[in-house]
Amino acid sequence: MSDELRAAIIQDDATGRVLMLGWMDEEALALTRSSGLVHFFSRSRQKLWRKGETSGNELRVVDVALDCDEDAVLVRATPSGPTCHDGSTSCFTPWLWRKILQREEAGSSDSYVVSLLHDGTARVARKVGEEAVELVVAALAEDDERVVSEAADLWFHTLVLLRSRGLDPAAIEDELRRRDV
Predict the structure, then answer these.
(1) 1, pLDDT greater than 60
(2) Buried b or exposed e, range 78-92, using 16+ CB within 10 angstroms
(3) Of the candidates 28, 66, 100, 125, which lies 20 to 30 Å from 133 by C-alpha distance?
(4) What pTM does this model have?
(5) Is 111 found in the same domain as 36?
């Protein structure tokens, strides 16, 4: 595989979560192995780069393995911060969380997400409480469509609450994994 690029899947060694997909040529693979930091080949810029060289969010190598055809790489790594350029733990962030981050970044004054975040955690926490009660009422006395609608409201507001506290929903997944539920 001299000049060919290999897909490189980066996996958090502690959680097993897939963090990102990048591309490695022979030089990137060799540097990743020798330096202990993940390197990639940028297809758009046509050059080598080290993850975290501008953000500081490096990926420290735990293990590197090639697949059976040697055309893909699995790197188990320890991240020193968010992996995705948008500040998420993983580039494979759920759609709703990514949408909340995008709305926050855009900062539009007519955005409900922005207004909630602007008003602070106390307002968002009250909304979570309201939505939780509405879900319980729907579950006990209303049809499935209403239960789904109220669950969606609760889910959304819970994610906004996490964002207002500077938490990533991946922390919830990690906690549940720790509990082995």
Answers:
(1) no
(2) ebeebbbeebbbbbe
(3) 100
(4) 0.77
(5) no
